[in-house]
Amino acid sequence: MILRILTALSIIQLAHQTEKVISVSQPPLLVAENKNASIFCSYVCKSPETRTFKASMLKGTARAVEVCSVSWNGNASTHNDNKSGIKCRIEVNTTGVMFNLYNLSVNQTDIYVCKIEAVYPAPYHHGESNGTVLHVKEEPQKPPQAPEHSNAMVAAVAVATGYSVVATVAAVLIYCRLRNKKMRLPRNDYHNMISWQANSPKKRNSQPSAPARTYTTYRFWEP
Ligand SMILES: *[C@@H]1O[C@H](CO)[C@@H](O)[C@H](O)[C@H]1NC(C)=O
Ligand SMILES: *[C@@H]1O[C@H](CO)[C@@H](O)[C@H](O)[C@H]1NC(C)=O
Ligand SMILES: *[C@@H]1O[C@H](CO)[C@@H](O)[C@H](O)[C@H]1NC(C)=O
Ligand SMILES: *[C@@H]1O[C@H](CO)[C@@H](O)[C@H](O)[C@H]1NC(C)=O
Ligand SMILES: *[C@@H]1O[C@H](CO)[C@@H](O)[C@H](O)[C@H]1NC(C)=O
Ligand SMILES: *[C@@H]1O[C@H](CO)[C@@H](O)[C@H](O)[C@H]1NC(C)=O
Ligand SMILES: CC(=O)N[C@H]1CO[C@H](CO)[C@@H](O)[C@@H]1O
């Protein structure tokens, strides 16, 4: 009985050890402001006899899609790509692996997990990190549209200003004309005029509101 427990314990310890031969870490969150992103995965391998490594980038919570991978043995490396449609370039150095992802689209926002494997010689080990949540943002508005937009704003403001000036002048003119007629007007009409005057400044102050902002959604060209 005791022997069995000890054996079980040692198996658990062994499993724990093999799990920790390669530890991988990467940033938990990354925001891609344009269509490119670079995820650096650092790793520690406690098996110095390992000659051949493989590093892969897995996409999704199920870690089922391999975006790209690289195998290296000393100075030589082979690179596999395009399994997910994401363009990928990989750089390896002694501390980790840099995955450069290109031409990402918003709907490729997902979790991206680094997996490092000690392929040769045996025993085989592997390590996976908790992954990077990559948030691909929509590309900002194209710069050439900005001046056009502000020109339109300036024009609208100018028109509004001109309109209110004209309205003011017209109101003053009408007021003067009515004042000249005042003596001849019955009292009722005078009251009407006063109430019209009281409404007038409100009218002038309510400028036409600025034109609604036009959001131009950036769309990728369909192939
Ligand atoms: C994304 O990377 C590609 C390839 O290096 C480059 O040509 C492009 O200019 C980059 N785009 C941005 C927005 O940085
Ligand atoms: C790797 O280095 C060895 C010598 O250390 C050399 O013979 C071999 O050609 C190199 N391979 C590459 C792909 O550079
Ligand atoms: C490996 O690359 C990363 C990312 O470019 C860099 O931060 C790190 O300093 C590099 N390490 C070495 C040993 O060159
Ligand atoms: C993701 O977006 C691209 C264009 O932005 C589109 O071509 C593609 O079909 C979309 N994929 C999915 C799964 O929605
Ligand atoms: C990864 O997640 C596990 C459980 O969610 C946690 O215990 C561990 O600390 C995490 N590792 C890193 C490097 O954040
Ligand atoms: C970028 O991705 C879009 C779809 O997401 C595709 O239509 C386009 O051809 C790609 N551009 C390049 C340079 O690969
Ligand atoms: C989607 C796609 O283009 N897949 C190609 C990736 O590259 C391999 C060869 O390495 C092709 O066989 C696939 O068709």
Automatic annotation (TrEMBL):
It is a single-pass type I membrane protein. InterPro entries: CD28, CTLA4/CD28, Ig-like_dom_sf, Ig-like_fold, Ig_V-set. It is found in: Membrane. Keywords: Disulfide bond, Glycoprotein, Immunoglobulin domain, Membrane, Receptor, Signal, Transmembrane, Transmembrane helix. It holds the Pfam family V-set_2. GO terms for cellular component: external side of plasma membrane. The keyword Disulfide bond applies. It comes from the Eukaryota. The chain crosses the membrane at residues 152-176. The keyword Membrane applies. Residues 44-137 form the Immunoglobulin V-set domain. This is T-cell-specific surface glycoprotein CD28.
